[in-house]
Amino acid sequence: MADWGPFDLSGKNAVVTGGAMGIGHGIVTRFLEAGANVVVADLDGEAAALVAKESAARGRAVSMAVDVGADDAGVAMVSTCVEAIGSIDVLVNNAGIYPMAPMLQSTQELFDRVYRVNLRGLAFASKAAAARMIEQGRGGNIVNIASIDSFHPSMVGLAAYDASKGGVVMLTKALALEFGPYGIHVNGIAPGGITTEGSSAPLLGSGITEEQMQALTEEFTSRIPLRRMGVPDDIAKVAVFLASSASDYMTGDTVIVDGGRLLG
Q1: Residue 1 pLDDT > 60
Q2: Beta-carbon neighbour count of residue 213 at 10 Å?
Q3: Is a pLDDT exceeding 80 seen at residue 69?
Q4: What CATH number belongs to 11-197+231-257?
Q5: Phi, psi for residue 93 in degrees, rounded to 5
Q6: In the chain, where are the structural domains located?
């Protein structure tokens, strides 16, 4: 294993939600390379199991099927991590959903579903992890995946998502204030446009054609100073930083990783 210096995660045990694909998968991969043991938690249990199996050469990975919006999800994830690999030192709240609907066509059910996964699930997973970290007595790190939409809406149709991600930024601050005295760091990452397996699904599902999707992507990319969309590894490397001793004097912050998109 390469020497990761202050970014080394050797001996750390982590849970990554939504870890079977996209940004979550990227984080799982980098955590394992940095020396951590990882619980790959995902709604798709088969996909999570496949990631864990394929990751065996990099390090120890355990899979579990879980709906982070379920009432007992946080406790279940922490229990799995402790029982399978001994403790929980890092929680990455990555799982999230972003169904598209203009506000005038939105429903209470859509809002409730988005909030249950993106904000409520994150909050109570953090509660369960922090309680165990306090019991262990050596602190820990919680990394919340927010969005540039936490600060500025990207387009019409994401009101529920944008509001939930704005909540993630403020919840990150609130939890950092509360958990800080126990040595628990709580920070966030706000990704910009990241190309993943499912990033275009909500748009295509709303009736937009492949050609229109391509045009939207090109227009969005043209407003990124670095002139490219991000990839999961762009976020994963920052997650390693926030989970490691390299960020020991940071808490309550949200790192924007968007290629400069919010500058425009």
Answers
A1: no
A2: 13
A3: yes
A4: 3.40.50.720
A5: -90, 85
A6: 11-197+231-257
Full-model pTM: 0.94
The DSSP-derived string for 42-79 is ES-HHHHHHHHHHTTTTS-EEEEE--TTSTTHHHHHHH
Q: What is the mean pLDDT of residues 134-149?
A: 98
Q: Which of 254, 237, 244 is nearest to 144 (CA)?
A: 254
* CA within 13 Å, CB half, 162: 15
Q: What does the buried/exposed string (b/e) look like for 8-36 if buried means 16 or more CB atoms within 10 Å of the residue's CB?
A: bbeebbbbbbbbbbbbbbbbbbbbbbbbb
Confidence class for position 43, pLDDT limits 50, 70, 90? very high
Q: Which residues are catalytic?
A: 161
Could you report how far apart the first and last alpha carbons of the chain are, in Å?
40
User: CA dist 24 to 14, 103, 109, Å?
Assistant: 12, 28, 26
d(CA 192, CA 234): 10
CA 179, 183, 187: angle at the middle one, nearest 5? 60
Query: Is the pLDDT confidence value at 80 over 90?
Result: yes
Where would I find the beta strands (DSSP E) of 44-201? 61-65, 90-93, 140-145, 184-191
Token pair in block for residue 257: 């990783």
